[in-house]
Amino acid sequence: MNVFRILGDLSHLLAILILLAKMWRSKSCAGISGKSQVLFALVFSTRYLDLFFVFISLYNLVMKVIYLLCSYITIYMIYGKLRKTYDRENDTFRLEFLLIPVIGLSFLENYDFIPTELLWTFSIYLEAVAILPQLFMISNTGEAETITTHYLFFLGLYRALYLANWIWRYHTEKFYDQIAIISGVVQTIFYCDFFYLYITKVLKGKKLSLP
Amino acid sequence: EPGAGKHDEL
Q1: Intervals of chain A under pLDDT 50
Q2: How confident is the model at residue B2 (pLDDT cuts 50, 70, 90)?
Q3: How far apart are the C-alpha atoms of A126 and A142, rounded to whole Å?
Q4: What are the DSSP calls for A150-170, one per residue?
Q5: Helix, strand, or coil here: A175?
Q6: pLDDT at residue B4 above 70?
Q7: Which of A14, A73, A84, A190 has the fewest CB neighbours in a 10 Å radius?
Q8: DSSP class of B3
């Protein structure tokens, strides 16, 4: 464990809690892509299966349970409690355009052709593209609530910190997880455009509205 | 490369 990974996990947890707080306080999930949240729940469900038969550390166990719980609560809020505020018309990204390539790639590029590894690989590739429906929705509506931009900022920051963690682990323990690293780079690249808007607009107190 | 089933990161 290193500081980049701890900060990354905390940034991820903060993002998830910001999203829940936004929905809880405003009693609305306007501007939130339910499809992205479904993909994140799928990422956690396929990656954290080892929760039941591999014990890594108490921290690892607790964080996995928190992520799983929060992601399902988020989905329950969007499609259950606050479904009247979910703007389905703007959440139109075709998930099959993500799931089919990700499943295909998981079968092609993996460390071992066994169910747990295929599921882990699927979850890594899926996480890289899971935010696309959300970014697509913002481009559809042309703007996003400020609290939503903070959610996206910490969500993007988490994997960027993981990149630093992998550099650190490579130099200190010759750790090199090629699938996670390449996928993490792609995932972070998808946020670059948003990061630019966030830093040049939101941090200057303006609302995030796309030109 | 980490072997199968040895993924210690979240």
Answers
A1: none
A2: low
A3: 25
A4: HHHHHHHHHHHHHHHHHHHHH
A5: coil
A6: no
A7: A84
A8: P
Tell me the three state secondary structure of residue A144.
Answer: strand
- Please spell the DSSP secondary structure of A32-47, one letter per residue: --HHHHHHHHHHHHHH
* Contact call for residues A158 and A43 (beta carbons, < 8 A): no
Check CB contact of A114 with chain B, cutoff 8 Å. yes
Distance, in Å, from the CA atom of A166 to the CA atom of A161, rounded to the nearest integer, reads 9
What per-residue confidence (pLDDT) applies to A52?
A: 85
Residues A80, A73: Cα–Cα separation, whole Å: 10
Q: Which residue in B1, B6, B7 has the most chain A C-beta atoms within 10 A of its own C-beta, making it the best mutation to test that interface?
A: B7
A87 at B interface, C-beta within 8 A: no
CA distance A165 to chain B (A): 10
pLDDT of residue B1 exceeding 60, the answer is no
Task: Write out the DSSP string of A61-108.
Answer: HHHHHHHHHHHHHHHHIIIIITGGG--GGG----THHHHHHHHHHHHH
**Cα pseudo-dihedral A20, A25, A28, A31, rounded to 10:** -60
Whole-number pLDDT of residue A4: 98
Other CB atoms within 10 A of residue A20 CB = 16
Determine whether the interchain pair B10/A176 forms a contact, defined as Cβ–Cβ distance below 8 Å.
no
Q: Do the bridges between strand A208-209 and strand A143-144 make them parallel or antiparallel, or are there none, so unpaired?
A: antiparallel
Tokens representing A42 are 């799928």
